[in-house]
Design brief:
7-stranded mixed β-sheet; alpha+beta; 11 helices; single chain; 418 residues
Length: 418
Amino acid sequence: MLNLPAATEAIVQKWFSENLSMIEPEPVGELIEMYSLYEDSTEVLSESDAKRYARSCLMHLFSDDLSEDLINFLKSSPDGSDPEPEIEQETESEEISTGGANDQSAEFLDSDLAHGLIAVLRGKDPDEFLASQSPSTANFISGLYSIRNGESQEAQSAIENLNDLKQTEIAKILSDYSISLEKKTASVESLPSGIRIIQPELLEEPIFDFDRDQIIGKCTKDHPETAVFVQPFAVQTWDGRLLSLAERETRKLIFPNSGDVQSFTGQHFPKQPKKHELGIWHVDRNESSTADHFTNFHIKGTKTNVYEVHLVPFSSTDYESVREYLKEHFSQFGLRQTVPYLFQLRDGVILGCPHGKDMSKDEGYSEGLPYWRTLDAFRFEGRLLVLGPLPAHELYECASLTTTLKKFSLVSRIVLMA
């Protein structure tokens, strides 16, 4: 029928009938008319039109109702002369290369298919690249995109379409992927996420263990030539309780007469905090204090950080927007910042800042950022505060493409020099 050897015609016919599909192929008459026009023209068909017309031809050639008009047209020469007579040759030893998956020289990647897959990876709708694809391929890619975006109805529709196209194995692959991703998402969502608000307890008795308990305080005055004062607003007990000292009268129960503590200068005392700085300190009694002194206590030991939580209006999957938002924040406030920040993203992920990095520039993100799925925090003066030291963290990669390429280039040079 198609001038193929009899030994292979049945196999080729069967393969095309099972693997080639197309919704509403172009009619034979229109195909012949269109190809005839372009044979006499210097114009060239667009890539998508050429694929659609070629696929339509294949659909007709391998259909049960083969068109003789199409066969005769394809066999004719562009100048209209009669086709060469058919010469059937068939031998037992004849072999025809199929150009299949094992023939590496025959590999070809469709550009629209490549663009469509990259769009899925980027979380963008690949629809504009699917017009030239077969229904099976188009449904599979659309299904991948829907599953990635959590659009369960659209994903199920793509799976059903693949089954209707008799692509049951491909439909099962897509369905299995959807189920596995749902299970993984469910397991992650079952974990606590984001900031958990805790309420400090009210201090009922004026009890403070000076050896083990600590104050959480704010520096209210920072004139080293006179005195530096810290106002406690909570107590962190040795067994993990958080007690409120928001009221001055409550503070005075523990730290009479002012309710504040001092910060002294000298090598035996911790570094003096700056005004508005927050911290966690141990406290000791002033050696020379008497009942007549207004402030009778001072901070001692190394300060533990208190972190203020800042909200970021982007999800953790929007890496570029997260990075640019943080860069802008540190460009504006980095030099004036007296309290270290944590950043909670829209989906609950909490980011920290690596020590010693300039977070206003891309290079500050080259090694990734520490992140946590959940942390405890409490509110003070409208601020959301997390107490240090912070627990073990995971790594959030959000470096720019340029920074990443520079990093890999450096690693490659080191490897070559080794």
